[in-house]
Amino acid sequence: MTAYYPLEIEFEFNGLKQSIWPVILQDESDVILIDCGYPDFLPLLENAALRHSIQLETVTKIILTHDDMDHTGSAAALKRKYPHLEIYAFESEAPYIEGTKKSLRLAQAEATLNRLAGEEKSSAEQFIRFLESIEHVPVDRTLNDNDILPWCGGVQVIHTPGHTPGHISLYLPSEQTLIAADAVVIEDGRLEIANPGYCLDLKEAVRSVQKLLDYEISRLICYHGGIFQGDAKKALQQLVRDYETMEERP
């Protein structure tokens, strides 16, 4: 038996209603959680899993697709509560998750301070303090591009840099399902690059979308936006064309 469950989690952040979509994969021997939300999200994760009749304590592994506060924020708390969990991440992203290297998102935020003043600067300083508060967690196993993980009939690791250098997406060949993480997001029913203003390398992010076209995708799950409704491959092609057109403009 192989199953996957997108977990819709709705919440408020900075006064705005938002939602994220971690995913649980399940087979006869393992339950794998892909990403885990902001800090203090354990109750939300537990409730979301229970809606699919899954106890969070049965999760055996966590895959962190990249080092961002809304993907890794509860990882340390999960490991503390469920010490049997094994944590996986891409090889080059692991040092940021573990805290042996300074968070690139934190460095990006700090670099903006000199250009800001007044309320904008105050908000940026508050954001930096929040990033500094994110608890780090050791990574038990590192991943590489094209690794095939031995769960659910095989889960392929796809290195999709751009949003962060070590960002990964995951592909389930048996289901023709792509778990995109932040490689793309859904906005107003359309696929878009995830938050271009925070994308550490936009051109690389577009190349990663182009890379995803090599896969047969019947279902596409985005961390922001959930399950894409429509022809995923056609939508990915259109997104690449849109950015190519932008680059061609004088």
From TrEMBL:
Keywords: Hydrolase. Residues 19-224 form the Metallo-beta-lactamase domain. It catalyses: 3',5'-cyclic UMP + H2O = UMP + H(+); 3',5'-cyclic CMP + H2O = CMP + H(+). Pfam families: Lactamase_B. The keyword Secreted does not apply. GO terms for molecular function: hydrolase activity. It comes from the Bacteria. CDD domains: yflN-like_MBL-fold. InterPro entries: Metallo-B-lactamas, NDM-1-like, RibonucZ/Hydroxyglut_hydro. Counteracts the endogenous Pycsar antiviral defense system. Phosphodiesterase that enables metal-dependent hydrolysis of host cyclic nucleotide Pycsar defense signals such as cCMP and cUMP. This is MBL fold metallo-hydrolase. The lineage of its organism: Bacteria, Bacillati, Bacillota, Bacilli, Bacillales.
